[in-house]
Structures are given as C-alpha cells and as structure tokens.
Automatic annotation (TrEMBL):
<keyword id="KW-0862">Zinc</keyword>
<keyword id="KW-0479">Metal-binding</keyword>
<protein>
    <recommendedName>
        <fullName>Guanine deaminase</fullName>
        <ecNumber>3.5.4.3</ecNumber>
    </recommendedName>
</protein>
<feature type="domain" description="Amidohydrolase-related">
    <location>
        <begin position="65"/>
        <end position="426"/>
    </location>
</feature>
<dbReference type="GO" id="GO:0008892">
    <property type="term" value="F:guanine deaminase activity"/>
</dbReference>
<dbReference type="InterPro" id="IPR014311">
    <property type="entry name" value="Guanine_deaminase"/>
</dbReference>
<dbReference type="InterPro" id="IPR054418">
    <property type="entry name" value="MQNX/HUTI_composite_N"/>
</dbReference>
<comment type="pathway">
    <text>Purine metabolism; guanine degradation; xanthine from guanine: step 1/1.</text>
</comment>
<dbReference type="GO" id="GO:0005829">
    <property type="term" value="C:cytosol"/>
</dbReference>
<dbReference type="InterPro" id="IPR032466">
    <property type="entry name" value="Metal_Hydrolase"/>
</dbReference>
<dbReference type="InterPro" id="IPR011059">
    <property type="entry name" value="Metal-dep_hydrolase_composite"/>
</dbReference>
<dbReference type="InterPro" id="IPR051607">
    <property type="entry name" value="Metallo-dep_hydrolases"/>
</dbReference>
<comment type="function">
    <text>Catalyzes the hydrolytic deamination of guanine, producing xanthine and ammonia.</text>
</comment>
<dbReference type="InterPro" id="IPR006680">
    <property type="entry name" value="Amidohydro-rel"/>
</dbReference>
<feature type="domain" description="Aminodeoxyfutalosine deaminase/Imidazolonepropionase-like composite">
    <location>
        <begin position="32"/>
        <end position="56"/>
    </location>
</feature>
<dbReference type="Pfam" id="PF22039">
    <property type="entry name" value="HUTI_composite_bact"/>
</dbReference>
<keyword id="KW-0378">Hydrolase</keyword>
Length: 427
C-alpha cells in the first residue's frame, strides 16, 4: 500500500488560463487533496477524501494556501554566488561578474557545492522545478542533475555553449559543443525526472558554425528543449546586428540555423520587432519573462499584455543571478510592477498562473507539473498569508482570497513558504 497523505487547506488550482476572460473564473478552490506515493491522487472536499482514504495521514493547514510548486523557466544556477552584483548593464555585467564566476566551475567540487546550495535556496523559496543554464563545463551539468536526482526533483539544464566573445577557459568549439552536449543528453535526458536542454548561450557568443551544430543536434533530438537569450538589451541587439550583418533581426540568427522551434525557450524577449513576434507565435515558441533581471540589469519592460493577447506561450523566471532574487513571489511582484509601468497591471490569479502553469507550459511539462489535479506529480507549496507583521496586518482586512494573497505576492519571501513537497515528499 502506497503512503498516503491528506492535506487540508485552501487548495488553489487553475481550470483555465486567467488571461482568457475573467481571471477568477479560471481558478478553482478545494478543501483537501490526497498525495499517494508521488502523485496527487484526489482533490475535493475534506469529508469525501477522509472517507475515501481512511488510512491517510492528515495534515491540516487551516487557512494556508496550497498551490502547485513554483516553476522557474529561466535561471543560471552557476550565478548563485554572484547574485546582486552592482552597477553594470548586460555586456559589462557578463564580462565583469558572470564570466569570472562561471570560470570557477572548471572545479567540479565547486560545481557540486553551488548546485546543492542553489537547490537548497530555491526549495526554501517554494520553487520545485527550474530550467537552468549550466556553464560550458560538462561537469557542471553532471553536478546539477546529480543534485536534483538525489532530491527527486524535476529539472532541466544543459551545457552552455560559447565559442567566441568569451574569455579563454570559457570557450568550446562548434565540434566540442556538439559532441559534449550529445554525450550529456544521452546520459541524462529522460532519466528519472531530468530533461536536457540544448543551450547556446546567445548568438553573440556563438559562431555561425556553432549555431548550426546546435541546430543539427536539436534536429536529431527534437524531444529536447532548446534554451537561449533573445533581445534583452538594445546594446546587445546592435552587437548582434554587427556580428550577423546578413540577419534580418536577432531572432533570424537562431531561425537561420535551425534554432527556432516550438520547444525553444527564448529568455527576455523584450525589444522584439513585428517579424520576430510573428515568427515566434507561428512556432508557438516560449518567451520567458524575467522581471527582476530586466529592472536590475536595466533591460526594459516586457510586453506581457500585448504578447498574451497575441496568443504567445509565456513563462516566468528569476534569471538568477541577473535577476536579483531566488523567489518566485518576488518575481511575481516585479512582473506586477512592470505591468503597472506599462499600464496593464496583472491580477493575482494571473501572476500565480504564470509562476506555475505558465512556466510549466513553457517547458512543455504542464501535463505533469504546474497545477493541482488528480494524476499530476505531487510538487506543492504551502503559503502562509500572514508570514510577517507587515503582511498579516494587511491580509487581515482582506475581503476575499485574492485580496488576502496579494500582499504575500508583493511582500512575501521564504518566510511565507511553510512547507514544500517535492515528488510526494515533504522537505
Ligand atoms: N545573455 C547572455 N548570457 C546571459 C546571462 O547569463 N544573463 C542574462 N541576464 N543575460 C544573458
Ligand atoms: Zn539568462
């Protein structure tokens, strides 16, 4: 008989996208759920589930909110220890802070230490799945997958490929990037809950030969995700134009070499031209919004409302350590603030959807994670809506769940995360 646990609380799930019509109507509230082994076996009223699962252990969370674990669709776990580095914009930030830190991952013991530190920090913040860049070192991929595997965690990563415009020691070649990525993919993709993403960092750090090699590898393994960066800063876009004089636009530097597809994840995607928007939409490619990064590095304001209205597939992400937080709560707050600056504030249900279902859809994993429903994997987060005096004095006077949860989205941190379940196990 599988171990069964009955969780009682305010279970919040999504029956539809809160970006299609009334956001609240897209949500569902239940009293209880049952975890059996590593799966959510049932969702419903407490009395019904108690009767159906009499031997289940009961954990009563009172009026805490139980949600699917957060899904972070774009991060750099190797940038954990250099998060919040001051005063630079993208290109200088990469050269000054990022590349020297990534160089340290030549030491596999350091890679293991940071992979575990990163997974500890993010679990404390309620993030149960992430899609991470590694470094160019194959051992950094091994370190991340090994750490996640031992925790039973569903994660994505891939060797970050760069064969130009990066320092000695952080460059591979078109051939070695292809060969090493292929070996890692064969070793890890589909093992337990682990998935491989083919990972050219961004077109300025890859030659055409390397982009072609990555495109060829993706064509051989179309079930893999492909992750990269797109149109984050205007200086970067000018640089791409000078490096690829024949390209129609930034996206074309991927599209021309087989790197535009439905299982592609394009981080940032802020300063898009109409042709790029059209092509991304035609492919149903995923755009990943990284709001704390976009304000921290000074990149720009993602057009969430316009891109959603056009039907784009969109995920939400910290972009740690360009992003300034490990917390998806803080990330939702930043997304809200960017929406405000654009005159299109998001509803709490839309923010929570982006951090769960939206990011799971971006990773093509919404069949197994990102929501609470029978048959889904039991990755859950339990939120305390009164985790600090400042939050509780505001949520106390809320007239409904949405008003009660919004102060935690705006002001909450790891203190709001009461409990995290990963693959049916409480951490
Ligand atoms: N563009 C290329 N590499 C990176 C990175 O590591 N972080 C961010 N924010 N943008 C990038
Ligand atoms: Zn990034």
């Amino acid at each position: 008989m599988a171990m069964q646990t009955l969780l009682k609380g305010r279970i919040l799930s999504f029956s539809n996208s809160p970006f299609d019509g009334d956001p609240v109507a897209a949500t569902q509230q239940d009293e209880a759920l049952v975890i059996s082994d590593h799966i959510i076996a049932a969702v419903g009223s407490f009395d019904d589930l108690r009767a159906a699962y009499p031997q289940a252990d009961v954990i009563d969370h009172g009026n805490r909110v139980i949600l699917a674990g957060f899904v972070d669709a774009h991060v750099h776990f190797p940038q954990t220890a250099m998060i919040a580095s001051w005063g630079k914009r993208l290109i200088d930030w990469l050269n000054t802070y990022t590349f020297p830190e990534e160089m340290r991952f030549a030491d596999s013991a350091y890679a293991e230490e940071i992979a575990n530190r990163y997974l500890d920090l993010t679990a404390a913040h309620g993030t149960t799945t992430m899609c991470s860049f590694a470094t160019i070192h194959p051992a950094s991929v091994d370190a991340f997958f090994t750490a996640a595997q031992s925790r039973g965690q569903r994660v994505v990563t891939g060797k970050t490929c760069m064969d130009r415009n990066a320092p000695e020691g952080l460059r591979d070649t078109a051939q070695s990037a292809y060969d090493q990525s292929k070996v890692l993919l064969g070793k890890w993709h589909g093992v337990d809950r682990l998935s491989y993403a083919i990972t050219p960092r961004f077109s300025p750090t890859s030659t055409i030969e390397q982009l072609e090699a990555m495109g060829a590898l993706w064509a051989e393994h179309p079930d893999c995700l492909m992750q990269t960066h797109l149109s984050e800063q205007t200086d970067e876009i000018e640089w791409v134009k000078s490096l690829f004089p024949d390209a129609r636009d930034y996206l074309d530097t991927y599209e021309s070499y087989g790197l535009l597809g439905g299982r592609g994840l394009y981080g940032h995607a802020i300063h898009l031209e109409q042709r790029e928007r059209d092509r991304l939409r035609e492919h149903d490619a995923a755009l990943v919004h990284c709001p704390t990064s976009n304000t921290f590095i000074g990149s720009g304001l993602f057009d969430m409302a316009g891109l959603m209205a056009d039907g784009h597939r969109i995920g939400l992400a910290t972009d740690t350590g360009g992003g300034s937080s490990f917390s998806m709560l803080r990330t939702m707050a930043a997304a809200y603030e960017i929406g405000q600056l654009r005159g299109t504030p998001m509803h709490a249900a839309q923010l929570l959807w982006l951090a769960t279902v939206g990011s799971a859809r971006a990773l093509h994993m919404d069949d197994v994670i990102g929501n609470i429903a029978p048959g889904k994997e039991a990755d859950l987060v339990v939120l305390d809506l009164a985790s600090t005096p400042a939050i509780s004095q505001r949520s106390d006077r809320a007239s409904d769940l949405w008003e009660a949860i919004f102060p935690t989205i705006m002001m909450g941190d790891d203190r709001a995360i009461t409990e995290v379940w990963i693959n049916g196990k409480r951490r």
